[in-house]
């Protein structure tokens, strides 16, 4: 181990990891950065990485996300594990997470598709701000992944064609298409701006947490809206005393389900959601409760009642 690597600060090691080939995709880099920056702040970003113990990292993870959903916990734990694996491979000090910090089981929700009327009610609520309304409608109408839409810049938009260029999971450049609802809201959201992120945070970032230039709006000085904040806002608007809040991914899932209920062919649904494997698409194209109730009526052998 070189002297430089042996004495490297936590912050420097994290920056080098984020600049590595493992984080070449912008969405991956942003996701890891959001996790590792918070963990680094907990353990001391200016401390030597060699002085940080696995127990300290475990305590940071627990303090930050022990109360989060299993999927959130697993994603945050995986980000830290990926960083530590990179450190070990590249000759940096690499403490090990405690074995007690295991992945949490994620329950598969068989009712993730949302009712179409419920989605429309949310998108027409007067108390929903323009940014959230545009984001949620765009997610639903494009059937795109939340990370892809949040990563959009104004330069990626083609409003006349109602489409935008996104970078897919595999790194390919693809197009997503929206309908009239997004077409009506989007010009209002980006009015007065011709470049930079489409979806912006509420406030300007402080000097200590200033993001990369690509994630800053040159017109307003505000940063790109992050996935965690977008997730929290949807949950806040949809959570009730009786039901948990919605997840951003449910809008993509629900759009595919609703297309299937409208008798759209599997090939078209795959093209819309940009799934390459029919088996993957079929996990989403699952008829909802309304469709099942309607098809059940086809089995009704009772004579119609007189009125």
Question: Could you explain how this protein is built, in words?
Answer:
The protein has 307 residues and is mostly helical. It has 14 helices and three strands. The chain has helices at residues 3-6, 10-18, 26-43, 54-65, 70-89, 116-123, 130-142, 146-150, 180-189, 227-238, 248-261, 266-273, 278-284, 289-296, and strands at 157-158, 163-167, 173-177. α3 (26-43) packs across α4, α7 (130-142) runs antiparallel to α9 (180-189) and α11 runs antiparallel to α12 (266-273). The model has no long low-confidence stretch (mean pLDDT 88).
Query: Structural class, from secondary structure content?
Result: mainly alpha
**Computed CA radius of gyration, to the nearest angstrom:** 22 Å
* Shape estimate: globular
Named CATH topology of the largest domain: hpI Integrase, Chain A
What is the oligomer described by this structure? single chain
Percent helix: 40-55%
The total count of strands amounts to 3
Low-confidence sequence ranges: none
Please tell me the total number of domains.
2
Which strand-content bin applies to the residues? under 5%
The termini sit apart by: 87 Å
Task: State the gist of this model.
This protein has 307 residues and is mainly alpha-helical. It has helices at 3-6, 10-18, 26-43, 54-65, 70-89, 116-123, 130-142, 146-150, 180-189, 227-238, 248-261, 266-273, 278-284, 289-296, and strands at 157-158, 163-167, 173-177. The chain has a 3-stranded antiparallel beta sheet with strand order 1-2-3, with no helix packed on it.
